[in-house]
Design a protein that fits this description.
Layout (H helix, E strand, L loop, with lengths): L11 H12 L3 H10 L5 H9 L12 E9 L2 E8 L5 H13 L5 E7 L1 E9 L3 H18 L1 H9 L3 E9 L7 E9 L6 H21 L8 E9 L5 E10 L12 H17 L1 H21 L4 H12 L9 E6 L2 E9 L8 H4 L1 H9 L5 H24 L3 H16 L6 H8 L7 H12 L1
Antiparallel strand pairs: 1-2, 3-8, 4-6, 4-7, 5-6, 8-10, 9-10
Helix pairs in contact: 1-2, 4-13, 5-7, 8-9, 9-10, 9-13
This protein binds (R)-mevalonate.
């Protein structure tokens, strides 16, 4: 039987055994492998297990460092968690390149987050608008037990707006609520407030005579991961002539123009824009993950923003004006440096410490700078050597592990492929010849 009821109630060992015995032929070996990835310290393992459900093992990802980032004049060694080869190397090389040209400038434009209560109202729209205006203070008062601490930190609810969507769906209205959650990502805070708003709305609708002309029913209350007003901007800039050396085979002006055109293509063509932005998120996600933040939320938001003008387009822009090269990125993101996993995950906690325990605003600036660096490095490779040269060199290690290359063989293969194109077939053939 490969289905089960009550799986979640089994102990961890029982879960592991059931999965191993049901889906694998070598169950003992599989259990050994899973167990090998348990944390040697039981307390730490308990913390990890607490993040999710039905856990049987841990799934490690590389934790790397991109040093030499100068952001707003301050040096950072940036922690990055990513499984793709070349990403950390590319970020590091872009950081160093721009370190010698003034570094990154980054600035948070705004920090507003959004939540929504979606509901149906069968009465007159006018009645609803009048009543909601009248009960705003009651909504705020009822949520006070949730908002008081956030308000003490300088955040809280910034605005409540009633929106009428009845043209698109009969009886559908929305409370759109703006929040400032300071240094926390704020998902739990926002969702708790929204659920309290739903309760208050229902209570009032069922007890206020002014609501008697219709019925009000809540559909759902949830934050929006689209936060276009939680926005950060990052930029690098230098005289075009200072780009000399970016590529040995190209002069600075040719490089700048080719780079500019490559970014323009990502603004024009959606297929290219998607890959271009994926390159940006290689950097952004790696830092978001390393600092214990929600990379799905950050990506979802960024891709929606990339389509804000009705067409999915590049998140970065390049300018060539009066002999000056400027490359900029504007990206929304909802992240935090307190709450969630940020302090609970032992490595996220250290990652934040490595960055000097930044505020959420400073972390947004760091992340945007890394996204821009990653994008710069990717486009630079694409318009010069192509990405495969560097990528396959980095990927060679993975191939060697996959092919079971031993010490001695590894060094010989790496030396041989130093000046030759790397492919899986070529490496396998060389290894076979080596062993003959
Ligand atoms: C690969 O992970 C990312 C790139 O494809 C990004 C790009 O094309 O700009 C290199």
């Amino acid at each position: 039987m490969s289905t089960i009821s009550g799986f979640s109630k089994l102990s961890k060992a029982e879960k592991m055994h059931w999965v191993a015995d049901t889906f694998f032929n070598d169950s003992q070996q599989v259990i050994k492998e899973w167990s090998n990835f348990w944390h040697p310290d039981a307390t730490q393992q308990d913390i990890l297990d607490g993040f999710s459900e039905n856990t049987i093992s841990n799934f490690p990802l590389p934790f790397g460092i991109a040093p030499n980032f100068i952001i707003n004049g301050k040096p950072y060694a940036v922690p990055m968690v990513i499984e793709e080869s070349s990403v950390v190397a590319a970020a590091s090389s872009a950081a160093k390149f721009w370190m010698e040209r003034g570094g990154f400038q980054a600035q948070v434009r705004s920090t507003t987050k959004v939540g929504q209560v979606h509901f149906l109202w069968t009465g007159q729209a006018d009645t609803l608008f009048t009543q909601v205006a009248a009960i705003k203070s009651k909504l705020l008062m009822d949520a006070k037990h949730l908002t008081a601490r956030m308000e003490a930190r300088g955040g809280g609810i910034k605005n409540i707006e009633l929106l009428d969507f009845t043209q698109e769906e009969a009886n559908y209205y929305q409370l759109k609520v703006a929040f400032d959650t300071k240094d926390s990502m704020g998902a739990n805070f926002i969702n708790s407030v929204l659920e309290q708003f739903s309760t208050t709305l229902l209570e009032i609708a069922s007890s206020f005579p002014n609501f008697s002309e219709g019925t009000l029913s809540i559909i759902m209350a949830i934050l929006s991961n689209y936060t276009p007003d939680c926005l950060v901007h990052a930029k690098v800039s230098c005289p075009v002539r200072d780009l000399e050396g970016a590529c040995p085979e190209m002069d600075a002006f040719t490089f700048a123009e080719k780079f500019y055109t490559a970014v323009r293509i990502a603004q024009i063509d959606t297929y290219r824009a998607t890959t271009h932005n994926k390159g940006i998120y290689n950097g952004i996600d790696a830092v978001v993950l390393a600092t214990g933040n929600d990379f799905r939320a950050v990506e979802a938001c960024g891709h929606t923003y990339a389509a804000r003008n009705g067409k999915y387009s590049s998140l970065s822009v390049c300018h060539l004006e009066q002999g000056v090269f400027t490359f900029e990125l504007e990206v929304p993101m909802a992240i935090g440096t307190v709450g969630g996993l940020t302090k609970l995950h032992p490595l996220a906690h250290r990652a934040l410490e490595l960055l000097g325990n930044p505020s959420a605003v400073e972390l947004m600036e760091i992340i945007a700078a890394v996204g821009l660096a990653q994008n710069f490095a990717a486009v630079k490779s694409l318009i010069t050597t192509g990405i495969q040269k560097g990528h396959m060199k980095m990927h060679l290690q993975n191939m060697l592990h996959h092919l079971g290359a031993r010490n001695g063989e590894m060094e010989a293969i790496i030396a041989y492929f130093e000046d030759k194109p790397v492919s899986f077939a070529a490496v396998r053939t060389f290894l076979e010849d080596l062993r003959k």
